[in-house]
Amino acid sequence: MAPEILRNQPYTRASDIYSLSMIMWEFTSGIPPFTCRVHDIQPSLNICKGERPEIIKNTPKCYIDLMKKCWDSNPENRPTITELEDKISEWIRYIDEYYVINKNGTHKFDILNSDNELKK
């Protein structure tokens, strides 16, 4: 749950964006965030204080940047759904930047290289 919801503030669309960031993290880890913790008040307090799951090794930088924006503690700093759509569309348009040619002449999808960044 988004920190503002844990603080008993009204639910907003920005809360959905926070939830998306947790789904994004789950895609990289294969497990839901904070599953190894006892579900009492302490994890909720830690989330409100800014704790987030540890970034999984080899996560692409562009993905990390977007995920971090989506899980910002301040809902006003999170991207809107339109901004998310624009960013993901940008990734799709520039997907060729992530292809490399192997020694045998075949193409390999190189998105796992965390040094890759989209170029405008």
TrEMBL record:
This is Kinase-like domain-containing protein. The keyword Kinase applies. Keywords: Kinase, Transferase. The keyword Glycosyltransferase does not apply. One of its GO terms (molecular function) is protein kinase activity. Residues 1-92 form the Protein kinase domain. PROSITE patterns: PROTEIN_KINASE_DOM. PANTHER family: PALMITOYLTRANSFERASE, PROTEIN KINASE DOMAIN CONTAINING PROTEIN. InterPro entries: Kinase-like_dom_sf (IPR011009), Prot_kinase_dom (IPR000719), Ser-Thr/Tyr_kinase_cat_dom (IPR001245), TKL_Ser/Thr_kinase (IPR053215).
